[in-house]
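Lecture notes, continued. The same structure-token format from the folding unit now serves as the input rather than the output. Read the line below as a description of shape only.
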């Protein structure tokens, strides 16, 4: 989960047996790319975790004929006094054929929405912004996706199925009738 640090490597403090070293110059790496400490107060190094930023990270989970599911990570709150209160999802065709639309989503823990009413066979770009009392935060990465040009195939027509007990009973009756016919033919009383 983005922003959650995973304590995994012990004795990772500078000078420890598992300190993180730069492959370029051999110096000790004490901060990540965002300037956050690479070692927690308990002396373990965090790995595989995405550090939170003020911008969400967006992705498109699935695109259909006239819609798509957009997902995002929760960004870091700008401050305790001004937490994220919702999101703005901005979507527009990449060719500029129609203006961008914005969908406002309330709730800081919401992490996805379904876009509907999109044009089939069209390429779109989408961005997400965190919103707080001051307005919009920085935009997420831009994700480009395309709706399919053909409608989804209709679901297959259901075939009526007899309940298993009725099917079993019918099979038994047919078997008994066949056995009776065989028994009667062997005695010559057909």
């Amino acid at each position: 989960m983005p922003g959650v640090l995973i304590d995994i490597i012990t004795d990772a403090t500078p000078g420890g047996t598992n300190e993180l070293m730069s492959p370029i110059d051999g110096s000790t790496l004490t901060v990540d790319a965002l300037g956050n400490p690479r070692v927690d107060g308990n002396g373990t190094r965090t790995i595989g975790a995405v550090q939170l930023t003020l911008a969400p990270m967006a992705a498109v989970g699935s695109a259909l004929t006239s819609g798509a599911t957009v997902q995002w990570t929760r960004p870091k709150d700008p401050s305790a006094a001004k937490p994220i209160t919702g999101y703005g999802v901005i979507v527009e065709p990449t060719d500029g054929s129609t203006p961008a639309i914005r969908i406002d989503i309330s709730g800081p823990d919401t992490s996805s929405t379904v876009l509907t009413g999109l044009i089939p066979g069209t390429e779109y770009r989408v961005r997400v912004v965190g919103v707080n009392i001051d307005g919009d935060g920085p935009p997420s990465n831009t994700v480009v996706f395309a709706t399919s040009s053909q409608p989804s195939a209709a679901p297959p027509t259901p075939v009526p199925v007899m309940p298993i007990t009725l099917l079993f009973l019918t099979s038994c009756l047919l078997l008994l009738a066949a056995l009776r016919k065989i028994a009667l033919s062997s005695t010559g009383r057909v």
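Point for the exam: The mean pLDDT is 77.
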